Amino acid sequence: MKQIIKDTLARISYWLYRTHIMKNRIRVHTIEETIKELIVSEKSMVRFGDGELTVIRGKSIKLQRNNPEISKQLKRILGYEYDNMIVTIPEIFGDLSIYRKESRQFWKEHLLFYRKWYRECCNTEKVYYSTSISRFYYAYRDKSKCGLWAEQIRQIWKGKELVIVEGERTHNGVGNDLFSTASSIERIIGPASNAYDRLDEILNCCRTYSKDKLFLISLGAAAKPITEQLFLEGYRVLDIGNLDTEYEWYLHQESEKVPLPKNEIIGEEANKKAGYHAYLDQIKYYVL
Fold first, then answer.
1. What is the DSSP pairing of strand 184-190 with strand 85-89?
2. Taking a C-beta distance cutoff of 8 angstroms, is the pair 206, 199 a contact?
3. Which residues lie closer than 8 Å to 287 by C-beta, 6 or more apart?
4. Three-state DSSP class for 23?
5. In the predicted model, what is the mean pLDDT of residues 25-40?
């Protein structure tokens, strides 16, 4: 019964939002525009999804315990202070018909509880970009463009020397061709959870690299302050979130959110047993 009431309130709230002209409406570029911007420019990117809004609200999420400092930092970063570091948020403030039924209901419910946080934190003088760049497959009702989007995303790092900063379970690009267009890959492995607690150590490892490297960060909520700090120091940094998971679902044309076996592999011996020798060779630093 509680869920039925919540669903009903979410639908009514969304209808009221959509049928009334609202001053200072939050604007978000499409996924196509977001991908193009990252191909044609050298801008960095920081992404916000529902998890980051939960942390801003002062709550913990699965992979990051909350503390006042990270909440404060995320809220400020969401305010979109820099022209050359684009901020992405969910593309949910217009027509939700682009999403499958389950996703439409999820976002309506999300807006029921978080719309005021977007209004408080977002800069309505800026046009945000789409967080769906890292969630380009599962949620979409029409999947006919997903192949094109996947190929375009891979062009962002074509010919680039990558430094991937990720959790020890993540294995970005392992077992697929997500980064096959890059010229080289090195990795910094951080904690699978609560990476914000090791922020300074992770940043110090990143600083050993030259500024011609392209950094890809996949460390949950901690990726936001890492991305901002490296950007301010002159690096190009892309917060890619769960892009690898989404890419795997696309490759296998999954109809549901299935777990990836590689995300359960931890430690050198387990990675050797799985045959991930190239992955192990790419690791230059551990911060665990």
1. unpaired
2. no
3. 188, 189, 190, 191, 198, 201, 202, 205
4. coil
5. 96
Encoded tokens for 287? 């911060």
What radius of gyration do the chain's Cα atoms show? 19
Report the pLDDT value the prediction gives residue 21, as an integer from 0 to 100: 45
Contact 108, 11 (CB under 8 A): yes
CB 150 within 8 A of CB 126: no
Q: Is 68 helix (H, G, I), strand (E, B) or coil?
A: helix
pLDDT band, residue 76 (cuts 50/70/90): very high
Q: What angle do CA 159, 161, 162 make, to 5 degrees?
A: 115
DSSP state of 258: P
pLDDT at residue 24 tops 70? no
The answer, as to whether pTM is greater than 0.90, is: yes
Please name the residues in contact with 42: beta carbons below 8 A apart, sequence gap of 6 or more: 84, 236
Q: What percent of the chain has pLDDT over 90?
A: 89
Condensed to tens digits (0 to 9), the pLDDT of residues 198-232 reads: 999 999 999 999 999 999 999 999 999 999 999 99
Count of domains in the chain? 1
How sure is the predictor about 181, in pLDDT bands with cuts at 50, 70 and 90? very high
In 3D space, the residue among 175, 145, 149, 189 whose CA is nearest the CA of residue 244 turns out to be 175
Q: Residue 215 region, left (φ>0) first, then alpha (ψ -120 to 50), else beta?
A: beta
Q: Domain of 44? A: 2-286
